[in-house]
């Protein structure tokens, strides 16, 4: 068989008892239920199985399943790892080097926890006002309303105001303004220092080592969790060099894998990965993978929310999403 279902996870925590119950994550109890469902309807495989399937055309079992976890959260060690170890399952963990090397918050997490700490209407109004403030100071930006009309479009997980807030602070505004606003809004609404928050949020080196030594697969997720498709070749080289320097002890040098932050990649990124010996790279394109026909550097994945008990899109008869 060549078909493969891959699921990606991010935050996995006891949401009701956490300080941020509104964070877009998977509740720990639902994760436990989902793992039992997946074991009943799929055959979990390892990253090594998947590498062989893509490169040696080794067949996978029917209803093969791969579990992936992005961003290097401490949730993964405290909540996910014990369950996987008990169930004798391998997880593949894609970790940005900056999270444990510098103990600084990634911009993506500043945005997530700001959104989880304040009403989106308040955040949207403040962001629109700040954009107009920068325009009045001479920064070449379109009017805030024009930006809102252009980028505020809901997707399957977020309302349009949330998408607008994310897009402005992730890619649209100039980089220095994005970083400034992300930090200022985080400080205002989350009310914790970034260093303290980062120390709680991310995996440390000892935890990563223990997971690797217990059979978990550790993969690269860049260094700075940047939009790789938007970087120049020198910027890409610098990001990968830093990622390799700090992740070298955790990855298998002859069989390493990559997950694109934000699912952002380009042919330039893929060529660089190939030149450095990467075996597989994962996107967030939503569909089932096929090891015969898919590009091994453009592998699609489902989201945890696509499967029971969160979703009803799964057909038990066909063993696939409908």
Structure explained in plain terms:
This protein is α/β, with parallel strands linked by helices and 322 residues long. It folds into two domains: 3-100 and 202-321, Glycoside hydrolase/deacetylase (TIM Barrel, Alpha-Beta Barrel); 107-196, no CATH class. It is built from 13 helices and 13 strands. Strands 1, 4, 5, 6, 7, 10 and 11 form a seven-stranded mixed β-sheet that branches. The protein has a two-stranded parallel ribbon with strand order 2-3. β5 (64-70), α3 and β6 form a beta-alpha-beta unit.
CATH superfamily of the largest domain: Glycoside hydrolase/deacetylase
Number of structural domains = 2
Overall mean pLDDT stands at: 94
The biggest beta sheet is recorded as: 7 strands, mixed
According to CATH, what is the class of the largest domain? Alpha Beta
Shape by Cα distribution? globular
User: Element order, helices and strands?
Assistant: EEEHEHEHEHHHHHHHHEHEHEEEEE
What's a quick, concise take on this entry?
By secondary structure, the chain is α/β, with parallel strands linked by helices. It has 2 domains: 3-100 and 202-321, Glycoside hydrolase/deacetylase (TIM Barrel), CATH 3.20.20.370; 107-196, no CATH class.
